[in-house]
Specification:
It is a single chain. By secondary structure, this protein is mainly beta. It has one helix at 2-17; strands at residues 21-24, 27-30, 34-36, 47-51, 58-65, 68-79, 84-91, 96-98, 101-104, 107-115, 122-130, 138-144. The strands form 2 sheets. Strands 3, 4, 5, 6, 7, 8, 9, 10, 11 and 12 form a 10-stranded antiparallel sheet that branches. Strands 1-2 form a two-stranded antiparallel ribbon. The protein is globular. It starts with a helix and ends with a strand.
Amino acid sequence: MRYLTIIFLFFALSFYLYSQSFLFDDSEIGIKNITIDYQPAYFMYSGNYHFGFSESESNLEIKVKGKSISSVFSYGEWNSKINGWNKKIIVLKNVKIIGNIFLAEGWCGIFVNYKRTNDNSYSKGLLLYCSTSKIKNELGWKTSY
């Protein structure tokens, strides 16, 4: 429990210390439009999360099967020799979900609900604070369950 409290305080402090808005689909969402997403079981966070817009798009797939959690990050990298995109895949190691916190080697994030700007409804997402990719302080929306 103490471990979970420390992690929660870390993320809460990060909300305050980092910018007051987060990049989302070529626009920004203010922190006042983001709430923490608490699910009764960690398997409910399973699904695909989409980050970025156009050339900077990427996906994080989280799979939960029993007590096993796996995650794969995929993105495209431009290859000027073939004048096309190369698909890159990173298999995350030591993936854990503790409460509503996503952790893996070199990765950390928090599952959230965010208020959509176009219709004021709430959607589920994952706010990544750190990663071994170029994604930092970016909100990804859940595209599948």
